[in-house]
Design brief:
By secondary structure, the chain is an alpha+beta fold. Helices cover 25% and strands 21% of the residues. The chain has seven helices and 16 strands. The longest helix is centred in the C-terminal third of the chain and has 24 residues.
Length: 353
């Protein structure tokens, strides 16, 4: 299996399966001399971990990260940062019923056909549990990117959508509720809806929006390595993501150029920000903002028809512990992937200096 690494200079390679002994990663390219707040890294993992509320999977995992290299007395040494997150609460027997069958819209079928073998216990490498490693690396990247603020939040669940512009939202309220929606009234409605969906044995998708402030001018490379292209790749690499848009996004296609153009102020800032902080694939110093669409979780706790390895139609019902809606736990993952992209381009820029 290729494709286990992300980033050119600030590079993360992850390993492990959801029901194996552990997950882990190796970060290459992190500069030396960065004083790390290890508690803050663990706090980021705690935001992503399962079992944290009544509307997420009830798998109980401490998700405690242990660093094996690259950090001495709390400071990065410039060598590879190796880390591990042990799995302590696997219930692999919950997946025995899908050993020879495929869950619709899941990676079961494609993995089996591509590799000729698959780890059916929770999906193996296709499990969203792999994203814990991304959160560790993203937390380190955040601490490297001093002054840059990356804040994601849930802006949609099912048909419910928070349409308030990001600059009119109090982002300090994101962590005040289990949905991670900064509009408290909307958060209550979303929470109730997710619980109703869970009660039916069904799942629902949603949207995570993200705002990046204090970005310097000049991050991103023109042509193939545009900043927005790398952000798009990063977000689309997250499990269950079906869409990505930044700035004016799809709405921009309905506007005239005369209203969409971001007119300049004398200091180089712009009066509007339909560009989403990126022009020509390069950051322009304005806020970067984007949204990421997540599909409903494929595993349903209700009966449905599917096929087995022989192509026979069979009846299946999901078992085990699954998220009825992934977006509350996806918030720190989106932030982490944004941080990895910005850290990589930050180090690429240093090559010019």
């Amino acid at each position: 299996m290729a494709g286990n690494s992300f980033g050119k200079i600030f590079n993360l390679t992850t390993y492990g399966e959801s029901h194996g002994p552990a997950l882990g990663g190796v970060i290459d390219g992190c500069p030396s001399g960065i004083a790390l707040d290890l508690d803050a890294i663990q706090e980021e993992l705690d935001r992503r971990k399962p079992g944290q509320s009544a509307i997420v999977t009830q798998r109980k995992e401490p998700d405690t990260v242990k660093f094996h290299s690259g950090i001495f007395e709390g400071v990065t040494t410039g060598t590879s940062i190796g880390f591990v997150i042990e799995n302590t609460n696997q219930k692999s027997h919950d997946y025995s019923h899908i050993k020879d069958s495929y869950r619709p819209s899941h990676a079961d079928y494609t993995y089996d056909k591509k590799y000729g073998v698959r780890d059916y216990r929770g999906g193996g490498r296709s499990s969203a549990r792999e994203t814990a490693c991304r959160v560790v690396a993203g937390a380190i990247a955040k601490q490297m990117l001093k002054g840059i603020e990356i804040k994601a939040y849930v802006s949609g669940v099912g048909t419910m959508k928070l349409n308030t512009p990001y600059n009119e939202i109090d982002l300090s309220l994101v962590e005040s509720n289990i949905v991670r929606c900064p509009d408290l009234e909307m958060a209550k409605k979303m929470e109730t809806y997710i619980k109703e969906v869970r009660g039916k044995g069904d799942t629902v998708g949603g949207i995570v929006s993200c705002v990046v402030k204090n970005v310097p001018v000049g991050l991103g490379e023109p042509v193939f390595d545009k900043l927005h292209a790398e952000l798009g790749k990063a977000m689309l690499s997250i499990n269950a993501v079906k869409g990505f848009e930044y700035g004016s996004g799809f709405h921009g296609s309905t506007m005239y150029g005369s209203e969409h153009n971001d007119a300049f102020n004398n200091d180089g800032t712009t009066k509007t920000n339909y560009s989403g902080g990126i022009q020509g694939g390069i950051s322009n110093g304005m806020d970067i903002y984007f949204s990421v669409a997540f599909k409903p979780v494929a595993t349903l706790i209700q009966k449905y028809e599917t096929i087995d390895k022989e192509g026979n139609t069979v009846e299946m019902q999901g078992k085990g512990r699954h998220d009825p809606c992934v977006v509350p736990r996806a918030v720190p993952i989106v932030e982490a992937m944004a941080a990895l992209v910005l850290a990589d381009f930050h180090l690429i820029n240093k090559l010019y200096n």
